[in-house]
């Protein structure tokens, strides 16, 4: 039958990971770190947290073995401990989407439905990565990365053009004229690509979005490029 106390101790170790994931803000930090390494200050700013609070959440994730750190001068850089952490985070989202009806309500409230506006391009609102790979290979689309430059620099779809969302309205002229645009961002629950598509369509561009993002792209073991590698 085994030793009940020892079994309980073992399962308590498993629970350390579950407890670390039991915070929406910590899941958001994992989401950001799935794009690449970041400093505490950067994570706090993007996640809308105070520096002390962000540090406390990151220490919880570190104690559970989900993130690692490196020091550069006075700054601490955090990164996911491995691809298995990214897969676990992705699975948590999938289970929640499948099992909790409230998730879809909150998803629609946050992301919207991205319906084409009257008189603007009315193609499908999203395409799969298989479709994107085929169209990119044929040279019929411009692939647009609308994440912040730091995330593009860490890893992006090969050949993608980087124009962060906050710069897009001022940089539309950089997009090749007459070509469809496929925008992507961090993942399936990232709002940046939705907002980029809305902006592009209002400007008269033929645009759609990748139905996933860099998180899913990397988990699928598809090729990635980085500025460091370049």
Automatic annotation (TrEMBL):
The answer to keyword Heme applying to this record is no
> Which keywords annotate this record?
DNA-binding, Transcription, Transcription regulation
Report the transmembrane regions from the record.
none
**Which Pfam families does the record associate with it?**
HTH_5 (PF01022), Rhodanese (PF00581)
> What CDD domains does the annotation carry?
HTH_ARSR, RHOD
Named from the GO MF annotations, one term is:
DNA binding
Stored PROSITE patterns? HTH_ARSR_2 (PS50987), RHODANESE_1 (PS00380), RHODANESE_3 (PS50206)
Keyword Signal annotated? no
Rhodanese domain residues are 137-226
Q: Where is the HTH arsR-type domain?
A: 6-100
Question: Which SMART domains did the record assign?
Answer: HTH_ARSR (SM00418), RHOD (SM00450)
Write down the superkingdom of origin. Bacteria
Q: What PANTHER family does the database record attribute to this sequence?
A: ARSENICAL RESISTANCE OPERON REPRESSOR ARSR-RELATED, HTH-TYPE TRANSCRIPTIONAL REGULATOR KMTR
This one is known as Metalloregulator ArsR/SmtB family transcription factor
């Amino acid at each position: 039958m085994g030793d009940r106390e020892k079994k309980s101790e073992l399962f308590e170790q498993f629970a350390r990971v579950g407890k670390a994931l039991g915070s929406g803000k910590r899941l958001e930090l994992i989401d950001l770190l799935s794009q690449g390494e970041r400093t505490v200050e950067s994570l706090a700013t993007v996640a809308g947290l105070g520096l002390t609070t962000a540090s406390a959440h990151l220490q919880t994730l570190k104690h559970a073995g989900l993130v690692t750190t490196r020091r550069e001068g006075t700054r601490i850089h955090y990164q996911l401990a491995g691809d298995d952490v990214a897969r676990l985070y992705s699975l948590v989202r999938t289970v929640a989407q499948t099992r909790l009806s409230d998730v879809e309500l909150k998803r629609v409230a946050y992301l919207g439905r991205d319906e084409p506006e009257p008189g603007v391009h009315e193609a499908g609102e999203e395409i799969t990565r298989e479709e994107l790979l085929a169209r990119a290979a044929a040279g019929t689309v411009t692939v647009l990365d609308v994440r912040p430059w730091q995330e593009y620099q860490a890893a992006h779809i090969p050949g993608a053009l980087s124009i962060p969302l906050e710069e897009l309205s001022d940089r539309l002229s950089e997009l090749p004229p007459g070509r469809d645009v496929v925008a992507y961002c961090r993942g399936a629950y990232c709002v940046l690509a939705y907002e980029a598509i809305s902006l592009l369509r209002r400007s008269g561009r033929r645009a759609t979005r990748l139905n996933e993002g860099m998180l899913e792209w990397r988990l699928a073991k598809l090729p990635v490029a980085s500025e460091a590698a370049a």
